[in-house]
Design a protein that fits this description.
This protein is an alpha/beta fold. It has four domains: about 120 residues, Rossmann fold; about 160 residues, P-loop containing nucleotide triphosphate hydrolases (Rossmann fold); about 80 residues, Helicase, Ruva Protein, domain 3 (Orthogonal Bundle), CATH 1.10.8; about 55 residues, no CATH class. The protein has 18 helices and 14 strands. β1, α2 and β2 form a beta-alpha-beta unit. About 30% of the residues are buried.
C-alpha cells in the first residue's frame, strides 16, 4: 500500500463490541492510519464533526442507532465521505440494500486484516484530503480559508471535480467566494499551464461579438475559462457558447472546425431556473453546464468559519489593531452578512484601522455593522425611488399623459397617483 494513500489519514471506527473495536483500531494503526473509535452511533456523530475522518467503518447491528441510521445521518452531513459497513453472515441482504442506498461497501465478519486494509485503501482513493494543515497534497485549496464541516464537504466535491474536464456550474450568493473555488479547482487539476481566464458576462451586453471579452478569450483556444455571472450573458452569446460547452475539444467559433483545449466553468448568483422560465436563459445551456454543479454556501451557513476568517484577515492586514477581542468575534458570528466574505473582510479591515486599542472591542464592531446596515437601507431606498420614477415616466409615455389610464394600470386611484407624481416632480402634461 502506497504511503500517499495512508499518510496518517483519519478513519472513524464505530462498534459496540469493545473487543472488535480494539482489534480494528490495532490493525489500522499499525498500517499508519490515525484512528478514532466510537462505541455508539450517537458518539460517532459527535466524533465525526470534530475529527473530520476521510472514511467511516461502522457495524450494522448496534444498540440504539444502528449502522443504517448512522449512515443516513452521515450521508446528510457529508455524502462524499465513504462509509464501510461490517456485517455478520445473516445480515448480508441488509448490507446489499445499504450499498444500494449509497454505502461505499461492506465487509462480512470474520474478515482478514488484508481484506480490511484493501477496502479502506479503496475508499480513501475516492476521498481526497482537504485539510490544509495535513500536508502539501491539500495546498491546492490554500486560497480558501475554512474549518467547517460544510466547507470540507464542498471541497471534497471540488477536488474530485478537478480530475476531469467536464463543464461546471458554481452557484452561490455574491461575495461568497465562487471565483476562489474555481481557482482552487484549476490548481488541483494539475494543468496550471492552461491559463486561468475570467470573463465577466455583464461586459458582453451591448457589444458586438468581434472584440468582445468572450471572443478574445476563445481566440486563444485553450484555458480554464471562468464565466462570471453567466445569467447576464446575452442570448446571442449563449447560443455561441453552447457548442463549446457540449464539446469542449471541438468547437466552431469562426465557421470552421477548430481544436480547443478549454474547460468552461460558469458562476452564478441568480436562480437560473427562474431565468429559464422567464426566457432569459437557455435551458440546454443550463443542463450542459450543470454536468458538475457545486454550491458555495453563504457565510451565514458557515458561521463556524468566521473566527478562522477573522484571524486570516487580521494576519493579512498591515498595521492597526493586532486582533479582535473574543466578544467582538462573537458579534461577528451573530451578524447576518448579506455581503458574505467580502463584507466580513471589509468590516474587519475597518475595525483594525479605526481601533485605538491593541484589540478591537465589540462596541466598535457593533457600530460598524450598524453603519453598514444604514448605508444598505439608504441604497435600497434610493434604488426604489429610481425605479418608481422610471416606472411612472414609462406609464405616462405609454398612456400619452392620460392620468386616469395610467392610474388604472398602476392600480392606484387618481388622488394617490397624483401624489406619486408630485413626489417625483413629474408633470403629466408634458407627456401629452
Amino acid at each position: 500500500m502506497s504511503a500517499d494513500i495512508v499518510g496518517g489519514a483519519r478513519i472513524l471506527v464505530v462498534d459496540d463490541d469493545p473487543g472488535l473495536l480494539d482489534l480494528i483500531e490495532m490493525r489500522l494503526s499499525s498500517a499508519g492510519y490515525a484512528v478514532t473509535c466510537a462505541a455508539s452511533g450517537a458518539e460517532a456523530l459527535e466524533r465525526f464533526q470534530t475529527e473530520r475522518p476521510r472514511v467511516v467503518i461502522t457495524d450494522l447491528r448496534m444498540d440504539g442507532m444502528d449502522g443504517h441510521a448512522l449512515f443516513g445521518r452521515l450521508n446528510a452531513l457529508a455524502p462524499t465521505v465513504p462509509v464501510i459497513i461490517l456485517t455478520a453472515h445473516g445480515t448480508i441482504p441488509d448490507a446489499v440494500a445499504a450499498t444500494q442506498r449509497g454505502v461505499f461497501g461492506f465487509l462480512t465478519k470474520p474478515f482478514e486484516g488484508r481484506e480490511l486494509l484493501e477496502k479502506v485503501a479503496e475508499a480513501l482513493s475516492i476521498s481526497p484530503r482537504v485539510d490544509i494543515s495535513a500536508g502539501s497534497d491539500a495546498s491546492w485549496r490554500a486560497g480558501i480559508v475554512s474549518s467547517s464541516l460544510v466547507m470540507d464537504e464542498l471541497l471534497r466535491q471540488a477536488r474530485r471535480a478537478a480530475d476531469n474536464d467536464d463543464p461546471m456550474l458554481i452557484s452561490g450568493p455574491r461575495g461568497s467566494g465562487k471565483k476562489a473555488l474555481a481557482r482552487a479547482i484549476h490548481t488541483a487539476s494539475g494543468e496550471t499551464e492552461r491559463p486561468f481566464v475570467v470573463v465577466r458576462c455583464a461586459e458582453q451586453a451591448g457589444m458586438s461579438w468581434e472584440g468582445s471579452p468572450l471572443a478574445r478569450a476563445l481566440a486563444a483556444r485553450r484555458g480554464f475559462l471562468v464565466l462570471e455571472d453567466i445569467e447576464l450573458l446575452p442570448a446571442p452569446e449563449q447560443a455561441r457558447l453552447l457548442p463549446l460547452v457540449r464539446e469542449p475539444t471541438l468547437f466552431s467559433a469562426t465557421g470552421r472546425s477548430d481544436l480547443f483545449d478549454v474547460r468552461v466553468v460558469a458562476t452564478t448568483s441568480a436562480p437560473l431556473d427562474q431565468a429559464i422560465r422567464e426566457g432569459q436563459f437557455r435551458a440546454d445551456l443550463f443542463y450542459a453546464l450543470g454536468r458538475i454543479a457545486l454550491t458555495m454556501p453563504a457565510l451565514a451557513e458557515r458561521r463556524d468559519d468566521i473566527p478562522t476568517l477573522v484571524t486570516h484577515f487580521v494576519a493579512q492586514a498591515r498595521g492597526g489593531a493586532q486582533g479582535l477581542a473574543p466578544d467582538a468575534v462573537t458579534v461577528l458570528q451573530e451578524a447576518q452578512w448579506p455581503g458574505n466574505i467580502h463584507q466580513l473582510r471589509s468590516v474587519v479591515e475597518q475595525a483594525q484601522s479605526l481601533s485605538v486599542t491593541p484589540q478591537v472591542p465589540a462596541t466598535l464592531v457593533r457600530r460598524l455593522l450598524r453603519e453598514e446596515s444604514e448605508r444598505e437601507t439608504a441604497a435600497l431606498d434610493e434604488a426604489r425611488r429610481a425605479f418608481e420614477h422610471d416606472y411612472l415616466v414609462q406609464l405616462l409615455e405609454n398612456t400619452g399623459g392620460n392620468v386616469t389610464r395610467a392610474a388604472r394600470v398602476a392600480q392606484r386611484n387618481r388622488t394617490e397617483f397624483y401624489k406619486l407624481l408630485a413626489r417625483h416632480n413629474i408633470d403629466p402634461g408634458s407627456y401629452k
